[in-house]
Design a protein that fits this description.
Layout lengths: L5 H39 L10 H22 L2
Helix pairs in contact: 1-2
Length: 78
């Protein structure tokens, strides 16, 4: 098995960082939509398009989407 050259790792890392910086507003928007939907589902205790099975799952989705929103929002400001 051949080793991957160092220059290829560097190019791949730069491309990944640029992709994350430019895609982070879209990721933040998707996380915000999921966050609002999960909060509404928790508050009303009605099924949403997310189809969350329990309040524990809904709380986990709220927490995860809030973290993704904060991280991607921070990446967009970089």
């Amino acid at each position: 098995m051949r080793r991957v050259p160092v220059w290829l790792w560097i190019v791949a890392a730069i491309a990944a960082v640029l992709l994350l910086v430019f895609a982070s507003p879209f990721i933040a928007l998707a996380a915000l939509i999921v966050l609002i939907t999960a909060i509404v589902g928790l508050a009303r205790r009605t099924p949403t398009w997310l189809r969350l099975r329990s309040t524990g799952v809904a709380v986990g989705v709220v927490a995860a989407s809030a973290v993704v929103l904060l991280v991607s929002g921070g990446g967009g400001g970089a």
